[in-house]
Amino acid sequence: MALRRAALSPLTVLLLVFCVVVSSAFPAGRAFAYVDPTTGDSQATRVLRGAQIPEKNWLPGHRGVDLALPIGGDVRAAESGTVAFVGVVFGTPTVSIDHADGIRTTYQPVHARVSAGDAVREGELIGRLGHPFDDHEGLHWGARTGPDEYINPLTLLDRPTIRLKPVDSTQARGCAWAKTSLSRCAETWV
Question: pTM score, two decimals?
Answer without folding.
Answer: 0.68
